[in-house]
Every structure is written in C-alpha cells, then in structure tokens.
Amino acid sequence: MKVLVADDDADLRELIAFTLTQSGYLVVKAGDGPSAVRRFEEESPDLVVLDINMPGLSGFQVCEAIRKRSRIPVMMLTVRGEEEDLVRALGLGADDYLTKPFSPRTLLARIKALLRRAGMENTTPLAAGRVALDLQEHTVRIGRGEPVRLTKLELRLLQMLLANAGHTVSSDRLLVQVWGHRSGGDRQLLKQLVHRLRHKIEVDPAAPALLRTAAAGYKLLVE
Question: What predicted TM-score, i.e. pTM, was given to this entire model?
Fold first, then answer.
C-alpha cells in the first residue's frame, strides 16, 4: 500500500513518513503543492495525506487536482480545525481530516479506518511474478518454495523493489524508504542488506537472477 504524504513542515513530514514506513506502508513525500501533484502523477499512490496550508498550491487545490483524476482516499491535515476549512475540504472530495497536533497512533488508526471504508485494507501478499511478500507475517515466498522469514529492514527493501518490479530503484530512494530518512543509512549498509536478502531469495546469491544491481541502484526481475 503506497501513501503520498504532502506537508511543507519537514519535521512533521518525516515523522509521518517514518510512522507509516514502520507500519509497512510504502511512502512518497512532497513539500509543496506542485510537488504533491507531480508525485501523485508519478507514483499513483493508494492514499494521500495532504496538508491544507502549503506553498505553490494549497491542499485544497491539490485535492481538487487529484479528484479530477482519481477517487483514492484523501486525508486532509489542518492546524486550525476551523469548520469553514473542513467543510471546504470535504466539499472538494476529501474523505477525512485530522487536526494538528496529533499522535502517530491516531494517524495510523484513522488511515486504517479510511482504507477499510474504501474497501482497500489489504492483508494479502504483495506479489509479482514468482515473488510473493506477506507484510503481516514478514515472509517471502519464491514460486512454490517455503516462506522465508525476513527482518524488518529486509522486508522494507523487498517491498519497495517489488512495488517497482522490473524498474530500477535508485540507491538514494531505497535509503530513504528502508531507513526512514536520508541520514538513516549509507550505501555500504544498503549493499550489505542487499547481500543478506540475496542469500534468502536467490538460488545462487553470487549470480543473482532476481535482485539485480543496476547503474543507479537495484532492480527486481520477477518474470
């Protein structure tokens, strides 16, 4: 499940992203209105968490742009909680709202409830080709093989690669997704993590057929 988090408050944006990542969601981020629209078009998220007050385009304008293209769930964030803002957001097609400040637990509960109402709560494995990832059990199955247990970091790495199967994912993007923020890991740690994951999913880790090294990052081949 992929979530777009759009907020010009960098600290809050990173906190929300880290909270969602820890709970097994794929997260893409934007710091202003135009970036939010662009990331929405590029990433096709399943849900959007959208701040009302952003530079470039307001959350209202971004919500309106999203609604012209999609009916995915949209949660609006506001610091004021004023009735006029809430009525306008819901009128533009937002599905829910949350007033700042809020706790990570409250955010997660509201997102899960929103996904349930939209019939999008997904506990089935994320799969492509021969690779099936079970986010609830922290396991991966290759073809008809037995499920293999993954660590939390291995799960996040494989989740990101599987969601982009067949396409190269840059090392920088993987570092952000796996460790939660840009300073959370480095390329050597990523190489070590890839090495450990290959030993769990490859027939011959020295000659990987699934998890391939690309010029700018890594690619999962599933056909």
Answer: 0.64
